[in-house]
Amino acid sequence: MSSSDIPASINADRSPRRQTARGLRHARERAYLLMLLPAAILIVVLIGYPILTMIHLAFQDVKLVNVNAAVAPEYTLRNFQRLLTDRRLPQTFQITAIFVFGSTALAFLWGLATALLLDRAFPGRTAIRMLIVSPWAVAAVVASLAWMFLLNSESGLMNYMLLAAGIIDKPINFLGSSIWALPTVVFVSAWKSYPFFTVMLMAGLKAVPKDALDAAKIDGAGPLVRFFWVTLPALRPVIAVSLPLSLLSAFREIETILVLTGGGPGRATETLALGIYNRAFQYFEVGRASALGVVVFLLCFVLVVGTLWLIQDRKRAQ
């Protein structure tokens, strides 16, 4: 039966209903957009405007004292030329890569282990959950100060315990040695950020299909096989969100390094973020700091896009 065979009264009855449903759908979409508008404006003001200002200052050879001068300096590429000729820049990139990927990887493994532990039922689980997540609630400066006293080479608790256990025969200068300084700040940063992964992965574990775990167990799969073939694939959406966020957080972190080592000894722990801070607020070179900030912004963008693409590509391959 064609549409021409349907009585006109029925068509007339259906058309207003469709138009009403379509109108309600459009009205709902407009309401959603209006609800999102304040958040979008806030993002543009708090994120977009500073990024544009940073790019603007990157092409100007200005100091902190005259950044708001009435006469704007001329645009120049001198800041980027200085970056390309800076002999310490490759070392700074290497230190940043070790710090960012090392602290993120350690925090992820640490958070995954604690999430798997807390997913099991045992006495006192609530108290242990609060204890494990507590580093996340402590301010970065306060936590770094606490670790600075714990790692002190003369009166620190860490050296005392290692000496008492007979593991070492003399105190280790964790924060003043070029060998130990970078691994130490990586460890402290991971300790501060691993509760983020714990909370995210604990929520993801609730979505793991119990039927698939039971079926794999019946088929004779061991704990490791069930983890890698059932649990970990189910956690991939959570990892795809939490991992880029943690990488970005590690890229911009300066509090831990600034309190513990200040970038030393001999710039052995100076990352790109700390380099931006030093150029802007110690040497007052806002133009050079902004140029380095543009480079870091592009690196973060490429890193996040690459991480998301890699995770989604593996998801499609499965």
From TrEMBL:
<feature type="transmembrane region" description="Helical">
    <location>
        <begin position="130"/>
        <end position="151"/>
    </location>
</feature>
<keyword id="KW-1133">Transmembrane helix</keyword>
<keyword id="KW-0813">Transport</keyword>
<feature type="domain" description="ABC transmembrane type-1">
    <location>
        <begin position="93"/>
        <end position="307"/>
    </location>
</feature>
<dbReference type="GO" id="GO:0055085">
    <property type="term" value="P:transmembrane transport"/>
</dbReference>
<keyword id="KW-1003">Cell membrane</keyword>
<keyword id="KW-0472">Membrane</keyword>
<feature type="transmembrane region" description="Helical">
    <location>
        <begin position="289"/>
        <end position="311"/>
    </location>
</feature>
<protein>
    <submittedName>
        <fullName>Sugar ABC transporter permease</fullName>
    </submittedName>
</protein>
<comment type="similarity">
    <text>Belongs to the binding-protein-dependent transport system permease family.</text>
</comment>
<dbReference type="InterPro" id="IPR051393">
    <property type="entry name" value="ABC_transporter_permease"/>
</dbReference>
<dbReference type="InterPro" id="IPR035906">
    <property type="entry name" value="MetI-like_sf"/>
</dbReference>
<feature type="transmembrane region" description="Helical">
    <location>
        <begin position="93"/>
        <end position="118"/>
    </location>
</feature>
<feature type="transmembrane region" description="Helical">
    <location>
        <begin position="171"/>
        <end position="191"/>
    </location>
</feature>
<keyword id="KW-0812">Transmembrane</keyword>
<dbReference type="Pfam" id="PF00528">
    <property type="entry name" value="BPD_transp_1"/>
</dbReference>
<feature type="transmembrane region" description="Helical">
    <location>
        <begin position="32"/>
        <end position="59"/>
    </location>
</feature>
<feature type="region of interest" description="Disordered">
    <location>
        <begin position="1"/>
        <end position="21"/>
    </location>
</feature>
<dbReference type="InterPro" id="IPR000515">
    <property type="entry name" value="MetI-like"/>
</dbReference>
<dbReference type="GO" id="GO:0005886">
    <property type="term" value="C:plasma membrane"/>
</dbReference>
